Amino acid sequence: MQLSDSVADAAVKQYAIERLSKLLRHPDDLVYKADDVRRKLAQEKLLIDAQLSTDVRRQFDDVQEGIELLYSTRGQINRVKTDMQQVDRLCNQAQSYLTNFDRIQKISIANRNFVRANEFYLQFSEFHEQYTLVRQMLADAQTHFDHGDFNLLRLHYFLHKLEDFRSRALGFTGVSDADSAQTLQQMFGGLDALVAEFEAFLWHVANSIYDLALRGRANVVVQLLKVVEAEEAADRAQEREREGAGLARRQSAMSSTSSAASASAAAAAALARGPRKERHVKHYRQKLLDLIQTMVTRRVDDFIANEAAGLDAITEVTGFVVDELTFVAEAVAPAFPPSYFIFDVFVDEYHRAVVKNADALSSADDIEGGAILALLRWVREYYSAMRKELSIPRDRLRPPLLDGREDQLAQEYLDIAVRKIREWVANLMRTETASFVARQDAPTMAEDGLYVTNASVFLFEIVNQNIDVVIEAQRAKLLCDLVAECNKVFQDLAKQWRDLLDAEKAKQIDTPDTVAEGLVDYTMSLANEQIRSVVQAETIRDETGDRLSRSHQERFKAELSQTMDIFMNVAEAATQTLADIVFSDLRPITSALYTVDWYQDDLLQPVIETLMDYCQDFHDHLDKYLYKRLMQDLLSRFALSYIDAVAAKVRFHKGQTSEKLNLELHRATKFFKQHMDAGAVAETLNVVRILISLIDSTPTMIFLEFFSVKKQYPDLPLQLVEDILSKRDDLEKQQLKSILESLRQKSKGDTGSSLAKQRTLFSKLKNYPPLGSTTPGRFF
């Protein structure tokens, strides 16, 4: 198989795949459209087969006709050859009948030369008059050019006659008469200047094609083209003459002898034609095309310099090129012969001029990110306009704009944009962190009473600017890449905030006297600002995502969802910091649970008062969603503090412990119901009720109580139950040992993997990590 065959097969397969992809766009089409597509393709195949059969039959008929014509032509050539040989014989025989044939022939030649010499004399005597007339015609044409009152064809005709006469005159003299040749050169010296002046005028007319077409003077353009075609015909004749002369010299060298009659005939023919000086080939057509290239390039360059300078106005070029080519198609192209394919020539030249300017703009060292996007948007609009307005496909326009570097420029823009965003974020972070650490003034309060920093406004200002320009450039993939790169920046930003929160929280808890006041307020402002960022990211996702194509919509929304998660994680870290600060203040009290002080004093009241102060601030200045999350966290920590305290050296007194726990549970429930849903409060504090039930259960009911609780809380640590029972003062050692042994035997089937999907509040205990865990759980 030839390489061309394999390439053709690959092209056919690729076309078939593309055709099927257009017919079967969705998976369901294989079920609902496959039969219709199969029938349609079968009908098309039948039509194509019939057409091919007809074409093949027609080709065979044409070939047969051609073969028959070749046979008949060969016979005719043989007959002509025979006739010519007969003529030659008759000529030779006729010469023998004329005794003075050579003398008669010489007299005939002399007579013809005399006639030609007389004609040459008359033309020579009229040359100056004709020269003056042509010069005056040219001067008048130059003077009245703006009015179009001239005739290029007439002017060229007379000038061409003068050139032809000069060529013949110089040819007559040859090299045998040097004085005559010099005299003729002086005589015709002004003609070269006149020809040069005419050519300059001719190209001036060509350079004014747009103005002539605009003024309705297409006839002048037609005259110009007829002059060009006439000169092209003369060029071709000159080329043929050169080839003929060369062929004659080669034949003369190959022929050693020739008949006297043939030699005489050749001499007579040469004299009849008259010798000529070789004409200089002018190549007018190529010069015209070169002038069109220069003219178009100048027009595009002038427009860009005066009307569309710089990348900001590059989009104006599209309308200019479309208007220019429309004008060419309507007013200029009809004047040209079809063989010029002149509209395609203009399309190529305009496109090359645009490519040259676009390359110059895109290669600038100081190009900005916005300028790059403007350039990319313009490239898309340019190709679209050429296709819609002029029906010129993108593949027809070569070389491609920007040398096909759209993806490279998009990456350059992305690098510039991300670098600026990083710089902006770094500057913003320096200001925000300095303010967060110093805490010299109270945080800014919004109209709704929430503490804010307005950092999200500045942060998303630059992000939205870049997103807007990318959307205007209609670069959906670049938009997704931009958001993905922004997420990396946001990840770094989030880490800095989490590290700063941990550092400030540690100082607040460990050395509260050495840190500035207001950490709680500033942490609330930080959390609120993250929520505002989430809202802005969500707005971008919902409003912008629906404007993208389906192929990019999913990725864009996924990236923005990740953006929202990043900011939400920082917000949750801030609420965890608030909860840590609150319970660091309560640590002296929570660490005294089940101790003598707890039994003797009311330690819950200062806890409730402390929570009341904090929760009021949270309610007034923290985002409502975060406030609910924080209250749930505080409630969980409050409940678990009673469970974790079991690990300390405490004792449970029968009746007394459960009575006090029930009292505190009632008061805590009442407090938390003021800030939370009653169902959520009851569900969370139920773990304390379980603690009470394990403390109050009789020895015979402990086993049943334990497994009743396990059904609701599968992750209840056995170690916790053992500690509760071992610290009850009403169970004897032997009795306790038996109960614990029984509980251990029944709990052997519990593993970390089996409980991994059944985590409850007990999995968050600090002192009793969940089964299978190697590190203590963390609150959130």
TrEMBL record:
Gene Ontology cellular component?
Answer: exocyst
Q: One Pfam family name from the record?
A: Sec6
Q: From what superkingdom does this record's organism come?
A: Eukaryota
GO terms for biological process, alphabetical: exocyst localization; exocytosis
Say if the entry is tagged with keyword Transport: yes
Query: Which molecular function term from Gene Ontology is one that the record holds?
Result: SNARE binding
Keyword list (alphabetical) reads:
Exocytosis, Transport
User: Which family does the UniProt entry place this protein in?
Assistant: Belongs to the SEC6 family.
The name on file for this protein is: SNARE-binding exocyst subunit S6
Q: What organism is this sequence from? A: Coemansia interrupta
| Gene symbol of the encoding locus | SEC6
